[in-house]
Structures are given as C-alpha cells and as structure tokens.
Amino acid sequence: HIYDNSTEGPEVGVLTSNHRDVWAKDYASLVAADRQNATNLEDIVTAAFVVCLDTARPSSPLELSKLAFHGGEKGEMLGNRWWDKPAQFIVFDNAEAAYVGEHSVMDGTPSVTMVDRMLTAIKRPDFDHGNTQDQVGRLSPPSLLEWKTTPAIQSAIAFARKAANENVRKQDMGMTSTSYGRDAIKKFGFSPDAWAQMVIQLAYHRLVASTSPEKSGRRRNGGTYEAASTRGFLKGRTETIRSVTEESMAWCDSMDNPSVSEEERKQLFKAATKRHGEDAAKAVKAMGIDRHLFGRLAS
Question: Catalytic positions, please?
Fold first, then answer.
C-alpha cells in the first residue's frame, strides 16, 4: 500500500541530520508553521521505531553501508531518514535491509541482540509473515503524513542538505575481507576483539609513520576509542577501552623493524593482546578512566 501510494513531499527528514542546535530551531519552526506538522512530529516521536522504504538498490555491502550511514554515496536518501530516531529499519527496493541506531538512548550490544533475535525469528520456517488477506484486512491502512512548509522551512531544508552533503564528502569508507575469521583467531589462542584492535593500531601506526616528516611511527595524533558495556550496573551504559598502550606500540614498532625476528614479534603481539584484554575487563567493571574524568569535568 505504501509503496503503491507514496508521493514526493518536502524532505523534512533532512532537517534531522543537521547540527542539533539548528535542528531544534527548525523543529520549532515546523510546529509553528502548521498544527498538522505538530501532529506529524508527535506521531514520529512517540513511535517505537521508523521504517524507511528506499528506492535504492544496493549491489554490494559497501554500497549498502553508505546508504545506511549517510543516505548513499552523495546522500541521495538523506530525506528518507529520521536521524533523531533511536531505531531505523531501512528496506531497499531489492529487499536488502539495514538497521541504523542513534546512540544517545541505546548502545550497540542491546541493538545487536534485538536485530539478531529478529533475523533468527524471520528465518524460522513457521514464522508468521502476516501477509494473508484476512490479516491484512484487519489492519487499518497507513495514513500519509502531509507537511506544511514555509519559504523559511524550505530554506532550512536546503541548508541542512548542503551541510549534510559536506559531511558525507568528508567520509571515507572501505571494506576488506580476510581468508580467516574469529574461529581461526581463537585457534591461534587470541581474542578476536584484541586481534582486530591490534590490526587497527598497526594500520594507523603505518599511516602516521608514512605521513610524518620524521618518518617515525612514534609521532601519533589522537587515541583510539573502543566501547565496553557496563550493563552489569544499574543504568550502566559504556566505558572506554583505550587500545593504545606501550605494549601495542612496541608490537607496532616491531612489525616494521627488519631486525626483529618473527618469534619476537609474536611475543610482543601476545603481550599487546594480553594488555588489551586486561584493560577491557577493567572497563566492563567500570574501572576505566574516561567516565570518571568526564564526570569530574561535567561536575
């Protein structure tokens, strides 16, 4: 019904991609422009989630990811998103699908659990897809949310799209596949998470070394943030695992030092992953430093 009866309307969804302070002002402008807008916003805000039916037909995981993260290569689907919403389910025209979560009210672990349970249920042979005529007939048809815009709102939409496109152009995304997975890493005696984090460290180490005037990987700019869940505590959210350690740096240095043997590199890698695991365990127990320091700063 929605697919067959949709009409092109103002790209109000683009407004939600803008800076939050700007979006707050545009939100107020929408409400002030017409009572119907206020009703539409209330319907969206009170909904558990939104479903985005896209006309795009992604043909690769990379293309699908770009459509999910920022509406496509050039942000062409930005208007068909509501970036304020904690949960967005995107269904593309070729039946591919994606999920986008907004982080302020929910974290990755519960989101992944929810999606995993959904996919598991859908794969079951006895899953009720609810597509019989009897079931469809009992449902009220969806109603179209019509927006009333003013020249100021149209200008805000154009401004938001321009700002979003500038952000999209700053993003660089690529994917690579390995011939092995987590099972092989575990057989080697390592944590898949620690392994992946060390790979990231080495890649960044080499990038910095290659762009540094001194050609030294020790010249680092910035740190690395990996989230750890603190759901074991009441209202717990996350703590930060700091992947950059003296041990990880020592291993990164060894990988580009021809005088270091393979066995030495292996031992250094073991030490780096061991340290990462220890820091991760502390973070899960709320024994990290980031949340503590942020709390002191905020107070």
Answer: 103
Q: Give the pair of three-digit tokens for residue 95.
A: 């039946």
Q: What is the pLDDT of residues 105-161, one digit of tens each?
A: 888 888 999 999 999 999 999 888 776 677 667 777 788 899 999 999 999 999 999
Element of type H or E holding 20: helix 20-33
- The CA angle 163-164-169, to the nearest 5 degrees, is 100
Provide mean pLDDT across the span 288-292: 89
Complete edge-to-edge strand list for the sheet that includes strand 97-101: 50-53, 87-91, 97-101
Q: From the CB of residue 279, how many other CB atoms can be counted at a distance below 10 Å? A: 22
Tell me the backbone φ, ψ of residue 261, rounded to 5 degrees. Answer: -75, 165
- DSSP assignment, residue 293? H
What are the residues facing 99 on neighbouring strands?
A: 89
Q: Which residues make beta-bridge pairs with 87?
A: 101
Residue 8 gets which letter from DSSP?
Answer: -
Residues 84, 50: Cα–Cα separation, whole Å: 10
Q: Identify the residue whose tokens are 């990164």.
A: 252
Q: Chain-centre distance of CA 83, in angstroms? A: 11
- Exposure string over 79-101, b if 16+ CB within 10 A, otherwise e: bbbbbbbebbbbebeeebbbbbb
Helix, strand, coil percentages, rounded to 5, for the chain: 55, 10, 40
Alpha-carbon torsion (126, 129, 132, 135), positive or negative:
positive
Which residues sit opposite 241 in a β-bridge?
226
Residue 164: predicted pLDDT: 93
If you count them, how many residues does the chain have? 299
pTM as predicted? 0.83
pLDDT of residue 27 exceeding 70: yes
Considering Cα of 171, then 107, then 109, then 285, what sign does the dihedral take?
A: positive
Tokens 């998103």 map to which residue?
81
